[in-house]
Fold this sequence. Notes:
The protein has helices spanning 7-11, 13-23, 46-71, 79-94; strands at 2-5, 25-30, 33-39. By secondary structure, it is α+β, with helices and mostly antiparallel strands. Strands 1-2-3 form a three-stranded mixed β-sheet.
Amino acid sequence: MKTLSYRVIRNEPGKFEETLSREGTVILNKNGQPLALVLDATSESLESLLLLVSQIRAQLSVAEMRASARERGLDRLSPNEIRAEIEAVRSERSG
Length: 95
């Protein structure tokens, strides 16, 4: 996968378009750090790509929540402790 500075879009748009067309995916960097992932999309594939990207983002969010729960020891809660937490939140909301 090719990596380009984001300035290439402004300074050398033809190079950016050619690289994207050839590679299909380009990582844009700013100050040496990843800034964006650019996917080559046709009008026919755009809707499918957008759906897949939203699904991937959801999966990443769930993975981050699970990792956070493990770090905080929440993956070791008993069913009774989980029920107690749920009831406490429900009580706060209703009361």
